[in-house]
Each structure stands twice: as structure tokens, then as C-alpha cells.
Backbone:
């Protein structure tokens, strides 16, 4: 009896040691993540003048690839000052019959220059306004805390309300797609239609693998190569070194301290409430969600939805297939107008 008991204990001991190592590793990861996401200040801010200057140099270099804006507007809202650029359409309305301007909402840490490949083509549709998202690295300046989805919608609503056009066709990329949908759910007054390009937290959850891969990128004291690696991962493995927009994104990730609430995943019940024309462009090789599941959710729940699945595109689809995107948006707006 004693011999059998000792054999059983011997079999358990290695497993117990392995379990202790796993728990210790998980505790270390939890400690690192807690340290990375701690929030000592209530609003987004730069880590110092040198970091801000590095971002501004990258922003200026990337911005030089855009057509020249005809107007730069700073809109004061209850939550801070929002930077808006207006670009004049080259043949406004000739391709789609649209007189309503487009308003572009960029992805996380990317700001207006992320639209470099898209803007010249979109200007064939109509005038275009772009926004640097409040609370993100860019030219907008957050002054008060943003603590909820409702407040995320409110600052954008106040921005649109201050601009001359009565309505806009919104075009949102990644987190900008979530921002557009969130606005439609809370303050849809100035929205004529929406095109969301591989939006996150809208039609599907983010995979665990992507969340794990993002943790090193969120730690500013780790080498630049780690952030470049994550950005390349989201772009289907494309190299990002010495690319002006990628350098700007990396500088923002490194030097800007986000203090925004985690976006709420849009439920299917809430999607069914959106009584607006919506074009959903889903990248088939995106690492931000299960693309086919996301496309099916969009088809099933958007009352006035049009869904386009781009099978070979990564999450960087706006830079990979700009001509196809503008053709789909132009056709969509023509049908919606």
C-alpha cells in the first residue's frame, strides 16, 4: 500500500512543479500587463518633449505624401481640441453624383497621414475631411477625460456639428470603423452613410493570439523592433521599417500614453438598430478577427448593409487595395444617395 502511494506521489510531483512554473509565469505576465496599462493621468499625454518632437517629425514627413489641404480647422469640444483637415475634391461628385463630403476616421495611433494611398482617389468622389482622433497621437489635444462609449460619440458629434456641411459619408479604418459605428448608435444626426474598413470590435471579437502579440507592442520601454514586428504582423508580414506612416505609428505607440476606455464590442442586437446605409469591407487575412465570421455577422444584422470580403487582404487593406476600396465606396455612395 505504501509503495503504491509513493509511486502516485512521484507521478504528481513533476506535474506540481510544472503547475507552479505556469502559475509563476502567469503572475509575471499579469504584473507586466498591469504595469503597462496603469493610468497615473486621466487624459492622453506625451511622455516628454523629445518623444513628442520625434512623433511630429514623423507626422510631418508622412503628411507630405498627401495632397495639400485647403483648410486646417481646430474644433473645440467639451473634451479637447480636434484637428480637422479639408481637402478639395478633384472632380467633386463626377464619379458618384455625391455632393455630401466624406469624413475619414483613422486607425489607432495613425492619424490623418494613414490615408496617403486613399486620399487622392477618394477626392474623385467629393470633398474630403479628415480627423485626428481625440485621445490618440496626432494633432488633436485631449483636455478632459473620456470615460465611456457615449463620451467617445459626444466629442465626435460636437466636431461634426461645428463643421459647415450638414451631413457626411463616414469612412472609418480599424478603430475608426468602431468610432463611426459608435457614433451612429449614440448621435447619428450628421451621418448620411458609413463605410467601415476592417473595423475592430464591431462584427467579431479580437483573437486571443493577436491580444497576446500586442502586449510587447504596448510596452514603450521595449525595443522599437518589437513594435515594428507587431505592425508588420497586422500588415500580413509586410516590412514596415523606413516607411513614413509606419514610423509615425511606431513613434505614437512609443511616446503617447493613451487614456481611453476599452471599446465595447458592438452586439448583434445593437447592429440591428443602425438605420443607415453601411458598407462593411472585411479583410480576409486580417488578424484582428475571424474574417468570415465577421462578414456573416455583418450580413445577418445590418438592416441596410452591403458587405465586401477581400479574400487576400490583411488588416492593412487600405494600403494594399486602395483602388478597389474607392470603387466600392463610390458605388455604395451612389446607391445610398
Residues:
Amino acid at each position: 500500500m505504501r509503495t503504491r502511494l509513493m509511486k502516485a506521489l512521484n507521478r504528481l510531483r513533476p506535474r506540481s512543479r510544472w503547475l507552479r512554473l505556469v502559475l509563476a509565469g502567469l503572475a509575471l505576465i499579469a504584473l507586466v500587463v498591469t504595469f503597462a496599462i496603469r493610468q497615473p493621468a486621466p487624459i492622453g499625454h506625451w511622455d516628454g518633449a523629445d518623444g513628442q518632437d520625434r512623433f511630429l517629425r514623423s507626422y510631418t514627413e508622412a503628411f507630405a505624401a498627401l495632397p495639400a489641404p485647403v483648410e486646417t480647422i481646430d474644433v473645440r469640444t467639451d473634451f479637447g481640441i480636434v484637428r480637422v483637415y479639408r481637402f478639395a475634391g478633384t472632380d467633386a461628385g463626377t464619379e458618384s453624383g455625391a455632393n455630401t463630403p466624406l469624413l475619414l476616421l483613422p486607425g489607432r495611433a495613425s492619424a490623418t497621414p494613414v490615408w496617403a494611398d486613399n486620399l487622392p482617389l477618394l477626392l474623385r468622389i467629393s470633398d474630403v475631411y479628415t480627423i485626428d482622433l481625440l485621445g490618440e497621437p496626432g494633432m488633436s489635444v485631449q483636455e478632459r477625460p473620456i470615460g465611456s462609449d457615449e463620451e467617445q460619440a459626444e466629442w465626435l458629434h460636437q466636431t461634426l456639428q461645428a463643421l459647415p456641411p450638414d451631413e457626411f459619408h463616414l469612412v472609418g479604418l480599424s478603430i475608426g470603423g468602431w468610432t463611426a459605428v459608435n457614433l451612429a448608435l449614440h448621435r447619428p444626426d450628421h451621418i448620411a452613410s458609413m463605410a467601415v474598413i476592417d473595423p475592430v470590435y464591431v462584427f467579431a471579437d479580437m483573437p486571443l493570439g493577436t491580444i497576446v502579440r500586442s502586449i510587447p507592442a504596448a510596452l514603450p520601454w521595449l525595443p522599437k523592433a518589437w513594435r515594428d514586428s507587431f505592425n508588420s504582423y497586422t500588415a500580413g508580414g509586410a516590412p514596415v521599417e523606413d516607411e513614413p506612416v509606419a514610423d509615425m505609428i511606431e513613434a505614437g505607440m512609443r511616446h503617447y500614453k493613451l487614456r481611453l476606455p476599452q471599446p465595447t464590442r458592438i452586439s448583434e442586437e445593437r447592429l440591428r438598430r443602425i438605420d443607415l446605409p453601411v458598407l462593411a469591407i472585411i479583410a480576409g487575412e486580417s488578424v484582428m478577427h475571424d474574417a468570415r465570421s465577421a462578414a456573416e455577422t455583418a450580413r445577418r444584422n445590418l438592416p441596410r448593409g452591403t458587405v465586401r470580403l477581400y479574400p487576400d487582404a490583411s488588416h492593412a487593406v487600405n494600403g494594399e487595395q486602395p483602388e478597389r476600396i474607392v470603387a466600392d465606396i463610390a458605388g455604395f455612395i451612389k446607391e445610398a444617395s
